[in-house]
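Hello forum,

I keep getting stuck at the same step: I have a sequence, I want structure tokens, and every attempt I make locally crashes halfway through. Rather than fight my setup again tonight, could one of you with a working pipeline run this one for me? It's a single chain of 126 residues.
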Amino acid sequence: MTTDTVVRLLQKSFRVTLGATASLVEILQDPQRREANLTKLKTDLEELTQEWAEKGEVTEIEARNYVDNFIAQKRSEMSSASTTVPTTATEVKPASPEVQLELQELTAQLAAIRAEIERLRTEEHR
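Reply #2:
Ran it on my machine without issues. Output:
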């Protein structure tokens, strides 16, 4: 058996199972179909297997389309959500006088440090 034959056999088995499951669901939902399918089951299993394979193929395609559409929808939602970032305005309260004084002192210290660094750099280059 070649790999292609095995893949086809597995695919047909999957589709037969899927079709049989879909038929079972239909049988459970519709009493008239129940009698027709039970009679059919007694007569020709090979024909029924082929019908299930076809029904399974259709069900597989429908399921794949549903999943693809679902994924595409989620991707578009995610991409639109990432492009539109909500912005919120936050109210900035004025700092207390103590904090403002401390900030001024720190700013002055930073300026003094920068000046010292510049002075040292110029001395090194001489």
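Residues 79 and 85 are 11 Å apart (CA to CA). If your local run keeps crashing, start a new thread with the error log.
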